[in-house]
Specification:
alpha/beta, oxidoreductase, Ald_DH_N, transit peptide, succinate-semialdehyde dehydrogenase (NAD+) activity, six-stranded mixed beta sheet, 419 residues, Aldehyde Dehydrogenase, Chain A, domain 2, 18 strands
């Protein structure tokens, strides 16, 4: 474990030494603003640092035995080869979050990066080599969009693979789970979200607007934990919508990710833009109003204006499925019970956010929201020491934190008799 720890630590140091180049690779292949890409590299590297430290804390147990002539031990051992399948929206961090834990546990990994963003995975591989991680421990299998399904199937069905860790859509996750069932593999799944962002009458509206802006429009709305539905209580509804629209118009700048003032890069591809358009068209046809934005940006086909909709209902597509784009729909509600019921009506539950200054309400709502992660008066909640993951159809298992390494360990019970 000491050697694993040292190699992971060296890999972390090399990421920090090369952080500018790594960030530029992310912006080039994903489109996110350079400042966000730099933030991702820091976040990404922090998982290697964290798991370098956790590698030396894989403790077993000694259990008092029921018979005098026995001793009972519990050992933790690596599960074996882990197949890691990652998405394009965080081309570096989604890899280190899994691979850091797997290597710390003593597993080897095969990484299949998203077909849109293979370069970050290969750059990490180059640094892994430089860090002295032995050949064959960190493996990358880039592939085309056409081959993705076939490669995913091989990784999930091959008996040599003991564990699958996947971040991506719920639909794809279900297919991989079916494949993995054939050989009863260990699985971690971090799937789609549909995050509610509830603003109660007692909220500090200015702070709620700032949190809303950060949570919704980071990476142009293309994160699994970004808000998908805003629920705003009637007493402050109009004030919130007005201030939110002003903040969007004043603080967000659509542009090339390498341009310093850009806060909103392009969406990942044409299909992503079409989905945003479809959601807006559907909402407007059912009576929603466009407060700001609403169409493709003049810069080019994958750029879209940051958009805010009001008069939104739960019947609209944008409140029933994840948009994954720069669209903020606002639903007006009357009571706390109503807001919680709307939030929990989804079949997924990754992140949820709410703003309130009422301590009793904070406890009630935090406990009642059916999600794996809750931000209270906070729009950005991801960090290396906290367990990341969802409930319901948002996934299985947790990543990061002291819990993250357990996903790559088997528990073995040893009974020694005749003593």
């Amino acid at each position: 474990s000491q050697e694993r720890s040292a190699r992971l630590r060296r890999w972390y140091e090399l990421m920090m030494e090369n952080k500018e180049e790594l960030a530029r690779i992310i912006t080039a292949e994903n489109g996110k603003p350079l400042k966000e890409a730099q933030g991702e590299i820091m976040y990404s590297a922090s998982f290697l640092e964290w798991f370098a430290e956790e590698a030396r804390r894989i403790y077993g147990d000694v259990i008092p035995a029921s018979a005098k002539d026995r001793r009972v031990l519990v050992l933790k051992q690596p599960v074996g080869v882990a197949a890691v399948i990652t998405p394009w929206n965080f081309p570096s961090a989604m890899i280190t979050r899994k691979v850091g834990a797997a290597l710390a546990a003593g597993c080897t990994v095969v990484v299949k990066p998203a077909e849109d963003t293979p370069l970050s995975a290969l750059a990490l591989g180059e640094l892994a080599n430089q860090a002295g991680i032995p050949a064959g421990v960190y493996n990358v299998v880039p592939c085309s969009r056409q081959q993705t399904a076939a490669v995913g199937e091989v990784l999930c069905t091959d008996p040599l693979v003991s564990k699958i860790s996947f971040t991506g859509s719920t639909a794809t996750g279900k297919i991989l789970l079916k494949h993995a069932a054939g050989t009863v593999k260990r699985v971690s799944m971090e799937l789609g979200g549909h995050a509610p962002f509830i603003v109660f009458d007692s909220a500090n509206v200015d702070r709620a607007v700032a949190g809303a802006l950060a949570s919704k429009y980071r990476n142009s709305g293309q994160t699994c934990v970004c808000t998908n539905r805003f629920l705003v209580q009637k007493g402050i509804h109009d004030e919130f919508v007005e201030k939110f629209a002003k903040a969007i118009e004043k603080e967000l700048h659509v542009g090339n990710g390498f341009d310093a003032k850009t806060t909103q890069g392009p969406l990942i591809n044409e299909k992503a833009v079409e989905k945003v358009e479809k959601h807006i068209k559907d909402a407007v046809s059912q009576g929603a109003s466009i407060v700001t934005g609403g169409k493709r940006h003049s810069l080019g086909k994958n750029f879209f204006e940051p958009t805010l909709l009001s008069n939104v209902t739960t019947k609209m597509l944008c409140t029933q499925e994840e948009t994954f784009g720069p669209l903020a729909p606002v639903i007006r509600f009357e009571t706390e019970e109503e807001a919680v019921a709307i939030a929990n009506a989804a079949n997924v539950g990754l992140a949820g956010y709410f703003y309130s200054q009422d301590p009793a309400q904070i406890w009630r709502v935090a406990e009642q929201l059916e999600v794996g992660m809750v931000g209270v008066n906070e729009g950005i909640i991801s960090s290396v020491e906290c367990p990341f993951g969802g409930v319901k159809e948002s996934g299985l298992g947790r990543e990061g934190s002291k819990y993250g390494i357990d996903e790559y360990l088997e528990i073995k019970y040893v009974c020694i008799g005749g003593l």
